[in-house]
Amino acid sequence: MILRLYILLPVLAFALFLYGAIVNIGYIEENRCRMTYMFEHPQYTRLPVQGNERFPKYGLYAYSEGYITQRVQQRVFTGAPVLFVPGSGGSYKQVRSLASVALRKGIDNNWQSHLDYFSVDLNEELSGVYGGYLQDQTEFLELCIQEIARLYGSRGRSIRMFIVGHSVGGKLAQAVVAQTGTRGNIGRYVAGIVTLSAPVDKPVALLDHYHQSFYDRIEQTWRTNRSVVGKLKSFRSKLSLDGILFVTIGGGIRDIIVHDGLTSSRYADLHAMTHNIPNVWLSVDHLCAMWCLQFVLVMNRFLFSMVVPHGRNNFGFVEEKQTQLDKAIRFLSQPFAGSLDDDDADEGGHVAVEKGKELLLVQHNPEQEDWIEDLRRSFTERHRAGMDRTRIQMIRLVPDKVAYRFLRVEVINSEQSNWLSGCAAVEIYGNSRMCQKATSLANYTLPVPSSKFDRFGAIIDMHELKRNNPTWTHVLVKIPRTNKPVQFSVDIFNPDERMIHLTMPYWFDYRAHTILQDASPDDSFYRINIRGMTHTYQTIALDLTAVSCGGVKGTVVVKVRVPWANGYDRYAFHEELNQTTVYIYPPIEKPPGGDGTEEEVPIQLDVHLTPGCKYRIRYAQSLRVSIARIVQQHLVLIPAHCIALLLLAFKDQLSQTAHNDPAFVVGKLQSSLTKPGPLVMLLATSSLIAKFLTLFKSIPPVELLATPLVVSILIHLASLGLLVIATLGLWGAIAFCANFAHKIILRLIALPIPVMSSTFLSCIHKFPLAIAVLLIAIALTACGGVSLLCAAAVYFVLLSKAYEDYLENFVFHTARKIANRLFGARERSERDGKRGRHRRRPANETGDELMVINFHLPLFFLVIMLGLLNVPSVITWAKNYHYANTLQPDPSLVPALIVLVCLAVLWQLNTPRNVYGYELLAALLVIVAFVSVLYCQVHVYRLNYSIGLVFLAITVHQIIAPKRRDMEMVDVAEEKEPDGIVEQAVQESEDDKKAN
């Protein structure tokens, strides 16, 4: 029963991984982006680039529409240049949405300021999974920047451009300014870099060493020539890359390719997420960032805000970096975040009227305004037909009462930026107190997410405000006259009454808990503090249900602030819904604390409710989103664990025979996989070995991953479940589909070219050495990954043929035993006995072929995994076949040659041989298994060499190991072994025919 439960756990874990993948694809958050449409047909004009003969498959294009195309074809560019760099597999045409909106804006303002968009064609190469072309792309991007500079320089202009890079294109933009060569410093042409959903400091997966060297080279250059944000340098002079504005933008939870933790950089001047950018407020998927109208509009507003005149009818970007950064903060970030904590007053800019700073005064005209003071603590007023006079809502500062400490105020459709101010209302006009001038509190205000209205809110500590301004008596809310529907709400409260503290449930606790049964309709704000949420997979589903709304449609806004993740604040808003679910999770792992004496800073949720609605708030741990985030962030770790578990199972197969036994026996793969020993050993000792190896400086550092134990166990179980299911599927394919697949492969090989067909078929008949040589030739002339996939197909044919021979021998021997029992055929038995003297007779007559299959099955799995790891190289080779027949450079070539040479030997020999030394081979498999877990989880490409080492060790062992002496064998003459695993079965079949 325990063994069955152990087999069930890996299958269940693998099913959870599949479920998490499905959730990631389309069931986490709906896509609420609006499409970006063109008014005219887009035109892409290719521009000649000096030095393009080195890169004939790349190109540079300028975007235009309609009559503007003629100016572009004449090389007339007068706007500020923006260069778009597509990502992995991206097209230069993806610039269309950004460029079209910018073009319309330039036409609308009569070309008073405009942008010129350029785009780079990188042949849609998959540079995210194949790094061999990254350096070529960087060098061509450098040529494009120089060509754009020449286009503007021909008109006597010195220009600096902005580079917008999507996905890997953002990393290319970071790499090009770090180029050091004879062409000079390319950074002098670059004013700023904006990366969109780009893996900046860490790649998504290291599938080849070219990615590793590319990232290491950029990191070394930027570390030398760029200041890390937040750290002071010991010298005053600026570094060479400090003058470039560097902004990183992430897509959020909908981006399943580059998760949010990879989109920030230690060198970035500003990091923002699309779900926190004002007027966007949405999470976007990896490609949606290119066409999401809400984001495209904000991005162009940010770029246009930096455009300044450069001579007559010419424009460029402002040169001063501080001005650029101020614009970035204004359009891409939240300039102020309110706080309910006293300790955050100075850090958050809570004091609006500090001494020595220039104050912005708001002028009032009492004859055109209605000054109204309301003594209610919480109320909401709606004016659906607008207001015919300006209204000044007066909120009294009461310094001594705790119930009057905090003020939350919100206005909808207020057409004035300085709508919140404070003053000493000591003047009298009519029957109302008023003040002619008030000090603006605009730094308290923030836009509140809304897709229909202009909505702003503010949270003020009125006691703190009174202490810093003793003469003030009121906070003023100014609502100018308008014909639009207007609404404003005031909520004065004691913060202790609106503060809710939660603790993250244990990983196995998924019960729903009610934290607020019936909130008062006047309560519009709550703060929820969540402690114990430190890992990225931990997720809480916060359910907010509107019990009654009194005729108004509910809108819920939740702001999530993770204190250790700057730039990752998140807004989630839902409009006109009675029930809302918001998923709370930390985007990055919490860094380890010091001595543990500091108090834990919780994750803060600011919940903004609709005034007039009565809400119920519940929460529970979300298994669905937790599994989805584990799959998103840790899927790349699966190959290393699969190979480690497979090697440990193979070690168990080779350890079935005692040292003194005369005959070597191979165990079954499925039996070895279902034993709990390898899994427990890998889990229990890998972390201990990692800590032990860190003590030795001479040993390369291991990959210390901040992976929680629960996630590690799930990854191990899911990997084991994948292997168990794959083993059962492969046995089913061998047992039921071998003959069918064999015929299909022969038909595919039977090409219409007679010479090629006859040659290939003759090679197949001379198995296995000839086909192995042919595969090596394919690796040298085409791509190593192609030869590995072909080797996997050939290996399947070999195993299926061996299984057919096993079935034939099994049926033959069974029929012979039945005949002997029925008819007593003694003479046939004597002939069989004489024939048995000339070949080794195992204890089980039909066990030889089955042992061959058991030995080669894990090797076949290793070949499949090696082929799958190099699929990116195969795709790259296929996409660029019309440019070159051979993939250069080819990261799969060396592992492919090692494995194919070893397979040529293993297929030719009668493996597994009855030799000594399998104990040493099993020990080596254990070492390689642990090396795969310690060094190959992140650096996935190292698994190629781990597998190559295994094949090399097995091949050398089969060649040089001494033979065992079988006491049951009668050595009348030196036995000639069959040539391979196919000829062995054929030889036995011929002997049986002769005997009969």
TrEMBL record:
EC numbers on record: 3.1.-.-
GO terms for cellular component: endoplasmic reticulum membrane
Membrane topology qualifier: Multi-pass membrane protein
Chain ranges of the GPI inositol-deacylase transmembrane domain: 710-954
Transmembrane parts of this sequence: 7-28, 711-737, 744-761, 767-798, 850-872, 892-909, 916-935, 941-960
UniProt GO MF annotations: phosphatidylinositol deacylase activity
Top EC class of this enzyme: hydrolase
InterPro entries, alphabetized: AB_hydrolase_fold, PGAP1-ab_dom-like, PGAP1/BST1, PGAP1_TMD
Residue stretches making up the GPI inositol-deacylase PGAP1-like alpha/beta domain: 77-306
Alphabetized SUPFAM superfamilies for the sequence: alpha/beta-Hydrolases
Keywords: Endoplasmic reticulum, Hydrolase, Membrane, Protein transport, Transmembrane, Transmembrane helix, Transport
Entry superkingdom: Eukaryota
Localisation: Endoplasmic reticulum membrane
Main location: endoplasmic reticulum
UniProt region (Disordered), positions on chain: 975-996
GO biological process: endoplasmic reticulum to Golgi vesicle-mediated transport; GPI anchor metabolic process; protein transport
Assigned protein family: Belongs to the GPI inositol-deacylase family.
Function field: Involved in inositol deacylation of GPI-anchored proteins which plays important roles in the quality control and ER-associated degradation of GPI-anchored proteins.
The name this protein goes by in its record: GPI inositol-deacylase
Organism in which the protein naturally occurs: Anopheles culicifacies
